């Protein structure tokens, strides 16, 4: 146990010492992976699909706030969609702007849900994003989760029906695809419900006073979401998607455990430092166990023969008795 705590403290110290560069690297890596996914699934403008361009965009995202980097990723996605259909790109833009407006109105601060849930759903991995948001956010961020889920399913529907827009003689509109392939799809509602359940359960349970609330929150939230999605796949006959669902949730659980272990798990037998936040402030707290505050017993020793009055508290009475007995003699 002590060895585990030492490893965790070393990791924390390394992160705190290199926080700026790790943050830059993390934002750049997230943007780069997102751009590569966009190029793979929505690479309709060939000259934008170059890894060099994706790398340049990612470097730019690394040195700006996460929200601004997410906007760049969405702008990149918008331009790629124009290569498929102007209608598709315009509807996507409307959804993005509406999502940002609603999230700001309801006080959501995790705009990366709108930016990256749509991208990572294309590889079946939106759940780690939701887990990270639930562990680090508040219940208000559920708005951005819902908005990100709607945009992600819209993009998934467009990707699966892209051939309808590529054919020159087709008269299919985006509204037709949304009304006949998305709105009537039961998986759309199950998917949004699963994301909401995952987020809300983690937020509510982690804020409770039960022991190991964070791990319990992650476990219950992921289990509930996975059962809902499995039920949906069984109902719609998409059993082949279950293995990828399990892999995505295992990854989400692992990420949640790492966040809890490194940043949130307190050892109540040692002095610990913890960080938490609400809507307005970030708090840095040093937790000191009461046993560490217990005062040590003060002991006063005799320094010279002439200073017989300086004794510790336990020997003063005995010394006085010795002096009295000596005077009677």
Structural description of this entry:
It is a single chain. The protein is globular, with a radius of gyration of 30 Å. By secondary structure, it is mostly helical. It has a two-stranded antiparallel ribbon with strand order 1-2. The chain contains 15 helices and two strands. The N and C termini lie far apart (62 Å).
Describe this structure in a few short sentences.
The protein is mostly helical. The protein has helices spanning 2-17, 19-42, 51-62, 66-82, 86-105, 112-121, 127-136, 142-160, 163-166, 174-182, 186-206, 213-236, 242-264, 290-293, 316-328, and strands at 272-277, 282-287.
How would you spell out the order of helices and strands? Answer: HHHHHHHHHHHHHEEHH
Structural class call reads mainly alpha
Strand content: under 5%
The strand line-up of the biggest sheet is 1-2
The count of DSSP E runs of length 2 or more, i.e. the number of strands, is 2
What count of helical segments does DSSP give? 15
Mean model confidence by pLDDT: 84
* Largest sheet features: 2 strands, antiparallel
Distance between the termini: 62 Å
**Helix share of residues?**
55-70%
Radius of gyration: 30 Å
Unreliable runs, pLDDT <50, ≥5 residues? 291-296, 313-317
Shape: globular
